Amino acid sequence: DAGITQSPRYKITETGRQVTLMCHQTWSHSYMFWYRQDLGHGLRLIYYSAAADITDKGEVPDGYVVSRSKTENFPLTLESATRSQTSVYFCASSAGPYNEQFFGPGTRLTVL
Amino acid sequence: QKEVEQDPGPLSVPEGAIVSLNCTYSNSAFQYFMWYRQYSRKGPELLMYTYSSGNKEDGRFTAQVDKSSKYISLFIRDSQPSDSATYLCAMSRDRGDSWGKFQFGAGTQVVVTP
Hints:
The structure holds two protein chains of two kinds. Chain A contains no helices and eleven strands. Chain A is mostly beta strands. In chain A, the strands form two sheets. In chain A, strands 2, 4, 5, 6, 9, 10 and 11 form a seven-stranded mixed beta sheet that branches. Chain A has a four-stranded antiparallel beta sheet with strand order 1-3-8-7, with no helix packed on it. In chain A, a hairpin with a 3-residue loop joins strand 4 and strand 5. Chain A starts with a strand and ends with a strand. Chain B has a single domain, classed as Sandwich (Immunoglobulin-like). Chain B has no helices and eleven strands. In chain B, a hairpin with a 2-residue loop joins strand 6 and strand 7. The radius of gyration of chain B is 14 Å and the shape is globular. Chain B starts with a strand and ends with a strand. Chains A and B meet through strand 5 and strand 10 of A and strand 5 and strand 9 of B.
């Protein structure tokens, strides 16, 4: 399917576990982004990537790791999950830094 | 203090009314301004995109940017129940260390009642 997909859509995990959220886009967009959305905070940028093997921190990067070995994939890893990382995570992609960002459907993560 | 402020609402209006949404910001370097619509349990989707100041119209939607007041607005004319969603503003500088990184408002929940 064309577009941007995220998996899993829902995830429940325990404190201290490692969790990886997947993001895949079929447009060959150069730019990809990870956001978290929490009530009262809107969307906050965690990490972004301008191209394969190029990543940079956003506003709230602590506790997260990203990689981008292929243009179409941008996984987000929580190395040791904490309750404060309970959130809805959105992946997005765009053709350029100021182009429209296309968002995935989100992953709802609960850390117990 | 957040760089982008947006009233979370909810904003409830009757069908057919004009919906007026706005965001204020503190960073005078912002040049790119976007409005996204987000339905419940969905990802945001772009509605309007403007660069620098001025107005932009697309169907029932009008976006305005007033850089002197650091204020942007979105108007929805002839509102429909299908317009019920959360509307997020987003903005970015065009140079410096925030290059390409958009700052989002918290979003305003809009409810259009039939």
